[in-house]
């Protein structure tokens, strides 16, 4: 097994080295072709684009909204993509294909196998590598965006694509773009839905009402930290985030080809709007016009408090502004079992004396994989009933399984979830309902949830 793994790593390293060599050879060939000797060059062929560029981009240049002027603007433009994930990957592919002159990607994360169904730039062999492995067409920045480095990075580009997935970074991107006068194309996607908007366009100085609204104008207050759902928790359909990434590329092309040149006004007006996409709705697209800039916005209002200096000196703490979730630890150590200890406990009891195992993941997750003998009680049902009158009328809620009511009232109840957070909430509610029999019955959770079960007990348990 070790020899096979060693051979696999050697082959992957050889493939990566060959790909780098091939990329270098292609670049050398391209450089050679563009550096045609002066003596053999036809002076009558001095056109704005190279012959290969006419062939490559001809189909989009004959579109009225692009034309030769639009293609030249694309070639002169510099676009920064923040985040090489499900949004950034398709956006990068289409912008590179459209002929954007300089394409930057900043991302400090590594490729995970769970990324591959939607992050189309990456392949299985890239798992574990950084998402910004250098490419001859890309200006790769392998780092996390911060208030200290954002101004210097953004200054090198004309337009910014927000392809991130957390509020703190979104506010940082918008604030930095406003103080530097850069438009932002922002998108997000979760489950079967997505949204997109162009921010700070046209870019104007803070206080100028003719400028487009920024992210703070649209969302003056960040959402509660515990209400933010990631793709890992909420799920995502690959083509949904792909649609939003492609739309980001399209809107970026629209902005670049519509930008006024030589102080001449553009005829293509872009109205600040929020585009909503719902894959399972008819029609799937809706558009809502955004309100203008807020007068008292901290970034683009008449008296802004955010500046280059405030960003670089760290006076604006984005994590504190948006809040952060600390690891949930609401139970005492005596109410928790490690996955390994629970396995030992199971092995020391026969089938009639194993108590009750409640799995509080949602049914859709439970149907993917579950521990044998567990009972699914979705945490959403538990929380819904705990907030209703059903929890105060003396009767047990409908979600309480018969196995709890009809068995030995002292039979222990173990609760498990995916990561060991929701299970703690469920344990507290079970005790509030009096199911602990005044301490006679053990009610506790499996610390770390099914993730810990897979790591410490059963490596073959599905990792989704």
UniProtKB/TrEMBL annotation:
<feature type="coiled-coil region">
    <location>
        <begin position="1"/>
        <end position="42"/>
    </location>
</feature>
<keyword id="KW-0963">Cytoplasm</keyword>
<keyword id="KW-0819">tRNA processing</keyword>
<keyword id="KW-0548">Nucleotidyltransferase</keyword>
<keyword id="KW-0812">Transmembrane</keyword>
<feature type="binding site">
    <location>
        <position position="86"/>
    </location>
    <ligand>
        <name>ATP</name>
    </ligand>
</feature>
<feature type="binding site">
    <location>
        <position position="300"/>
    </location>
    <ligand>
        <name>Zn(2+)</name>
    </ligand>
</feature>
<dbReference type="InterPro" id="IPR045886">
    <property type="entry name" value="ThiF/MoeB/HesA"/>
</dbReference>
<dbReference type="GO" id="GO:0042292">
    <property type="term" value="F:URM1 activating enzyme activity"/>
</dbReference>
<dbReference type="GO" id="GO:0061605">
    <property type="term" value="F:molybdopterin-synthase adenylyltransferase activity"/>
</dbReference>
<comment type="pathway">
    <text>tRNA modification; 5-methoxycarbonylmethyl-2-thiouridine-tRNA biosynthesis.</text>
</comment>
<keyword id="KW-1133">Transmembrane helix</keyword>
<feature type="transmembrane region" description="Helical">
    <location>
        <begin position="78"/>
        <end position="97"/>
    </location>
</feature>
<dbReference type="GO" id="GO:0005829">
    <property type="term" value="C:cytosol"/>
</dbReference>
<feature type="binding site">
    <location>
        <begin position="165"/>
        <end position="166"/>
    </location>
    <ligand>
        <name>ATP</name>
    </ligand>
</feature>
<comment type="similarity">
    <text>In the N-terminal section; belongs to the HesA/MoeB/ThiF family. UBA4 subfamily.</text>
</comment>
<keyword id="KW-0547">Nucleotide-binding</keyword>
<dbReference type="InterPro" id="IPR035985">
    <property type="entry name" value="Ubiquitin-activating_enz"/>
</dbReference>
<keyword id="KW-0479">Metal-binding</keyword>
<protein>
    <recommendedName>
        <fullName>Adenylyltransferase and sulfurtransferase uba4</fullName>
        <ecNumber>2.7.7.80</ecNumber>
        <ecNumber>2.8.1.11</ecNumber>
    </recommendedName>
</protein>
<dbReference type="Pfam" id="PF00899">
    <property type="entry name" value="ThiF"/>
</dbReference>
<feature type="active site" description="Cysteine persulfide intermediate; for sulfurtransferase activity">
    <location>
        <position position="417"/>
    </location>
</feature>
<comment type="pathway">
    <text>Cofactor biosynthesis; molybdopterin biosynthesis.</text>
</comment>
<feature type="binding site">
    <location>
        <position position="107"/>
    </location>
    <ligand>
        <name>ATP</name>
    </ligand>
</feature>
<keyword id="KW-0833">Ubl conjugation pathway</keyword>
<feature type="binding site">
    <location>
        <position position="214"/>
    </location>
    <ligand>
        <name>Zn(2+)</name>
    </ligand>
</feature>
<dbReference type="GO" id="GO:0006777">
    <property type="term" value="P:Mo-molybdopterin cofactor biosynthetic process"/>
</dbReference>
<keyword id="KW-0511">Multifunctional enzyme</keyword>
<keyword id="KW-0175">Coiled coil</keyword>
<feature type="binding site">
    <location>
        <begin position="114"/>
        <end position="118"/>
    </location>
    <ligand>
        <name>ATP</name>
    </ligand>
</feature>
<keyword id="KW-0472">Membrane</keyword>
<keyword id="KW-0067">ATP-binding</keyword>
<keyword id="KW-0501">Molybdenum cofactor biosynthesis</keyword>
<feature type="domain" description="Rhodanese">
    <location>
        <begin position="351"/>
        <end position="462"/>
    </location>
</feature>
<dbReference type="GO" id="GO:0046872">
    <property type="term" value="F:metal ion binding"/>
</dbReference>
<feature type="binding site">
    <location>
        <position position="131"/>
    </location>
    <ligand>
        <name>ATP</name>
    </ligand>
</feature>
<dbReference type="GO" id="GO:0004792">
    <property type="term" value="F:thiosulfate-cyanide sulfurtransferase activity"/>
</dbReference>
<dbReference type="GO" id="GO:0005524">
    <property type="term" value="F:ATP binding"/>
</dbReference>
<dbReference type="InterPro" id="IPR000594">
    <property type="entry name" value="ThiF_NAD_FAD-bd"/>
</dbReference>
<dbReference type="Pfam" id="PF00581">
    <property type="entry name" value="Rhodanese"/>
</dbReference>
<comment type="function">
    <text>Plays a central role in 2-thiolation of mcm(5)S(2)U at tRNA wobble positions of cytosolic tRNA(Lys), tRNA(Glu) and tRNA(Gln). Also essential during biosynthesis of the molybdenum cofactor. Acts by mediating the C-terminal thiocarboxylation of sulfur carriers urm1 and MOCS2A. Its N-terminus first activates urm1 and MOCS2A as acyl-adenylates (-COAMP), then the persulfide sulfur on the catalytic cysteine is transferred to urm1 and MOCS2A to form thiocarboxylation (-COSH) of their C-terminus.</text>
</comment>
<dbReference type="GO" id="GO:0002143">
    <property type="term" value="P:tRNA wobble position uridine thiolation"/>
</dbReference>
